[in-house]
Amino acid sequence: MDSLLHLPVFCCKAVPLPHWVPDSQLQQCSSCGDAFNPFVRRHHCRCCGSIFCDACSSGRVVLPGFGYLSSVRVCDDCRQFELGQLPLLLAGDVWTKVGEPQQRYLRLSPDQSLLVWTPWRLEEGPLRYSTEDSADVARLTCVSEAPEQRELILWIDSERLTFVADDPKQVHLWAAALSRLLAIIRQRHSYEQLFGGIAAGAESPRTLAVRLPLMDQLLEQRANALMDSKQRALIAQEMQKRQGTNTALGNTNSARHSEQLSS
Ligand SMILES: [Zn+2]
Ligand SMILES: [Zn+2]
């Protein structure tokens, strides 16, 4: 079992903390299935709360969303999520929402509690954090992809939302990232139900705490930095495309013009 030295000093209200699986519940590593014994010790992942062997939880990351401001142990899946998939979701991307003429900027809120899709406006200042069109991530029930049609399909309760991207790779990356987010959320909720949350989960070292303003600032800053750089890149791309079109038109016009002159 891990030492209790790396406990968070506070936690997020919006994101339920993983309740540590009690040591007695698992006799083998959740990932590779190796049986635990005095030589293969149990280690808890700070992100999902499950138990792993040392080899399957060798990554260390900072988890500001959970109040861990220095690196803590995470399992391989959670490491991949925190370092690759979460930044993708926080930075957001432009999608076409099926049935709507206007493009949408789809992203995860900084505290990971909301999925937000606001109208995408080119050439405007930084995208304002707005919850105009959003859903609680806990209401997300299913994520699927239709790569040939470049569609990302989200079920929020029983409502189906479909977003289309130009790039099938984008659809695939998002579907994988959202599926992982969904799996982590389910894992956290199922532990809460299984062990009755804080009161009955005597083996969980977590305690409820208030969310500090510093925490919100940190999360907001990280998400905004990711979003700003993504948006700047998209605007530059779009402007380049437009300039390209203009130049092509200009060339055609001047070609026509010279034809007229020579005839
Ligand atoms: Zn393992
Ligand atoms: Zn994990």
UniProtKB/TrEMBL annotation:
Keywords: Metal-binding, Zinc, Zinc-finger. GO terms for molecular function: zinc ion binding. Residues 23-78 form the FYVE-type domain. Residues 240-263 are annotated as: Disordered. The keyword Manganese does not apply. It comes from Prymnesium parvum. The keyword Zinc-finger applies. InterPro entries: FYVE-type_Zinc_Finger (IPR052113), Znf_FYVE (IPR000306), Znf_FYVE-rel (IPR017455), Znf_FYVE_PHD (IPR011011), Znf_RING/FYVE/PHD (IPR013083). This is FYVE-type domain-containing protein. Residues 242-255 have a biased composition (Polar residues).
